[in-house]
């Protein structure tokens, strides 16, 4: 069963991509933070913590390991909601409410009648966290279609739905409390990441593929909805009858489900992602004056100087370019302009930049459109968005979208995706995101810390790697102003770097098995953490040699074990090479060296050798950590 589930996990990840893919700084003092948690809401084809697949490959973090687990080490309380992977924004919003309060999903009397499905769906027996609405508010973070889901959710939560209340009254039943409104204070902030606020041209520019993907995933939903794997990855289409009832045989359920046609109900994500439908939804959503809004857009394309079209960025380093699986769709989006939607919306050249699935211009902020004018307005008619440079010391205000600088990333790299932006970049992105969210509670807005190391000028080849790790709180210097980039790294120092990369709380690791690691040594908790988590085994059962200079092959082994223990998926995009001195690489280290070379973390020396027993410098160690 484990092999089956792992295969399913990888298959679903592939479908997702094809379908639209030295001493660490201390964690911030959580006493200054509100105890309002963050709830992540996934996009199309995504999954949350309710799905067992999340334990194998979390949607939030994907190939870089679990983001909720990492953020917990930084003092943040987070949850990953599970909403229908193919469902409409309305249905997903209702499911999100049911999860947060711990209730049976109520899609509304009128909505159920209008779209021909059942009023009730999955019963969430316990709330996602305690105290929502009575003691605590929530900070919503939505990726991709999760952004549309959270915006509609907030609108209904705040202003309710009078049509649903009237329909329930006419039917002589009670409406869901969700549709009564008056709960806008239950949400503190809303963050949208690579969200198609105004739809995406992917649907029309890749119409044949979109139809095929819709048909295939609908078939998969029917199959999984009746199988024992429903709890592994749940399409959550129970309201459409895609489930097995207790009073029917499997054969009866199969016959009924196969005859159902989910897409014909016009209550699905594929329709809601079109530009016309997205703008129709937008017209019913107001910017709430008490909520803080943040928006992140991505662009992983480059302009062709001859045609003006946009093409996917290609790089020998996978994390610096677009995932190959997204490139065909991106190419079509990058040349799709001078077109009109069925509703009369003009698609001009501003729609060409994209992240592989979503147009950059659509991910900036939600708009309301009247044919030829595009605006994002607040209730009073003033502009509802501002550009923010991402680092200036400002005080965020509620009731306005803060549009962050466009990130050089494809659609899935925002969540540590198929070709990730490296562990450190993913962690740093979410640390900064969390800092912005929690700065709105009245604590001091974080400011950019000046780079202090005078011996690492910007002209030095290793500067960007060392600065990235320093900014992320992974490494510090050998003094207040020096880093000593050419100094050799010891085994204890490198283990400490790995603990910093993981954001590990090592305070509980006061003792360990190595006799040469004194309990009072500065590195003891880091070495003990690494040993307890299977990152290091020592040079013997009782010795670690903490002060010994680390060899290149031992560094590779530690990195390889660290990746395996913390769910980091190593890529295989680089062609395998045979180092000229492969015979000198120890047997225990060869698998690690080979795997890291295929992943692009190590590349060897200019003469084709690896030099496994050579030592590594502090700056070389930083490069390897950044490329992981």
Structure description:
This protein is of the alpha/beta class and 628 residues long. Helix content is 33%, strand content 9%. The chain is built from 20 helices and 15 strands. It has a seven-stranded parallel sheet with strand order 2-1-5-6-7-15-14. Strands 3-4 form a two-stranded antiparallel ribbon. Strands 8-9 form a two-stranded antiparallel sheet. Strand 12 (368-370) and strand 13 form a beta hairpin. Helix 16 (491-502) runs parallel beside helix 18 (552-565). The longest helix is centred in the middle third of the chain and has 20 residues, at 207-226. It is globular.
Q: Brief description of this entry?
A:
By secondary structure, this protein is an alpha/beta fold. It is built from 20 helices and 15 strands.
Provide the fold topology:
Elements: H1 2-19, E1 38-41, H2 53-56, H3 67-73, E2 78-81, H4 89-101, E3 104-106, H5 109-115, E4 120-123, E5 138-143, H6 145-159, H7 162-170, E6 187-193, H8 202-205, H9 207-226, H10 250-258, H11 269-272, H12 275-282, E7 292-296, E8 301-303, E9 310-312, H13 327-333, E10 339-340, E11 346-347, E12 368-370, E13 373-375, E14 385-387, E15 401-403, H14 423-439, H15 463-471, H16 491-502, H17 524-532, H18 552-565, H19 590-598, H20 618-627
Parallel strand pairs: 1-2, 1-5, 5-6, 6-7, 7-15, 14-15
Antiparallel strand pairs: 3-4, 8-9, 10-11, 12-13
Helix pairs in contact: 4-6, 15-20, 16-17, 16-18, 18-19
């Amino acid at each position: 069963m484990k092999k089956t589930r792992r295969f399913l996990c990888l298959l679903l990840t592939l479908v997702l991509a094809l379908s639209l893919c030295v001493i660490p700084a201390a964690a911030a003092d959580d006493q200054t933070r509100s105890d309002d948690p963050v709830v992540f809401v996934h996009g199309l084809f995504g999954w949350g913590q309710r799905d067992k697949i999340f334990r194998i490959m979390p949607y939030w973090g994907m190939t870089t390991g679990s983001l909720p687990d990492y953020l917990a080490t930084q003092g943040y309380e987070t949850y990953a909601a599970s909403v229908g992977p193919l469902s409409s924004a309305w249905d997903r919003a209702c499911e999100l409410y049911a999860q947060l309060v711990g209730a049976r999903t109520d899609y509304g009397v009128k909505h159920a009648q209008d779209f021909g499905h059942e009023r009730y769906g999955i019963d969430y027996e316990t709330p996602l966290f305690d105290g929502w609405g009575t003691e605590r508010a929530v900070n919503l973070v939505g990726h991709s279609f999760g952004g549309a889901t959270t915006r509609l959710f907030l609108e209904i939560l705040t202003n309710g739905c009078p049509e649903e209340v009237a329909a329930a009254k006419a039917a002589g039943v009670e409406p869901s409390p969700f549709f009564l409104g008056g709960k806008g204070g239950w949400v503190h902030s809303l963050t949208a990441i690579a969200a198609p606020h105004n739809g995406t041209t992917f649907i029309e520019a890749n119409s044949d593929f979109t139809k095929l993907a819709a048909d295939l995933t609908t078939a998969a939903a029917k199959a999984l909805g009746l199988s024992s794997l429903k709890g592994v990855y749940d399409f959550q289409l129970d309201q459409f009858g895609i489930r097995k009832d207790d009073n029917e045989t499997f054969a009866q359920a199969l016959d009924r489900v196969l005859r159902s046609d989910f897409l014909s109900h016009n209550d699905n994500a594929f329709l809601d992602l079109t530009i016309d439908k997205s703008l129709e939804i937008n017209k019913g959503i107001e910017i709430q004056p008490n909520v803080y809004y943040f928006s992140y857009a991505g662009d992983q394309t480059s302009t062709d100087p001859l045609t003006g079209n946009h093409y996917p960025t290609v790089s020998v380093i996978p994390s610096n370019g677009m995932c190959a699986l997204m490139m065909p769709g991106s190419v079509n989006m990058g040349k799709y302009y001078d077109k009109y939607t069925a509703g009369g919306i003009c698609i001009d050249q501003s729609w060409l930049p994209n992240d592989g699935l979503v147009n950059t211009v659509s991910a900036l902020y939600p708009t309301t459109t009247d044919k030829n004018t595009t605006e994002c307005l607040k209730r009073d008619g003033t502009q509802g968005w501002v550009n923010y440079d991402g680092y200036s010391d400002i005080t965020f205000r509620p009731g306005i979208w803060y549009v962050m600088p466009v990130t050089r990333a494809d659609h899935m790299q925002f969540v540590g995706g198929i070709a990730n932006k490296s562990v450190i970049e993913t962690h740093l992105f979410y640390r900064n995101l969390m800092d912005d969210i929690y700065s709105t509670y009245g604590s001091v807005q974080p400011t950019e810390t000046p780079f202090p190391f005078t011996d690492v000028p910007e002209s030095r080849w290793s500067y960007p790697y060392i600065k990235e790790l320093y900014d992320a709180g992974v490494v510090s210097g050998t003094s207040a102003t020096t880093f000593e980039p050419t100094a050799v790294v010891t085994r204890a120092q490198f283990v400490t770097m790995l603990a910093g990369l993981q954001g590990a709380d090592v305070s509980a690791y006061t003792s360990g098995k190595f006799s040469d690691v004194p309990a009072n040594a500065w590195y003891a908790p880091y070495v003990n953490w690494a040993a307890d988590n299977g990152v290091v085994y020592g040079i013997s059962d009782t010795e670690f040699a903490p002060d010994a200079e680390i060899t290149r092959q031992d560094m590779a082994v530690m990195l390889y074990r660290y990746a395996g223990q913390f769910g980091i998926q190593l890529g295989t995009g680089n062609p395998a090479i045979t180092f000229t001195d492969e015979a000198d690489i120890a047997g225990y280290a060869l698998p690690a060296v080979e795997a890291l070379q295929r992943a692009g973390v190590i590349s060897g020396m200019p003469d084709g050798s690896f030099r496994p027993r050579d030592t590594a410098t502090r700056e070389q160690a930083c490069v390897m950590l950044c490329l992981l």
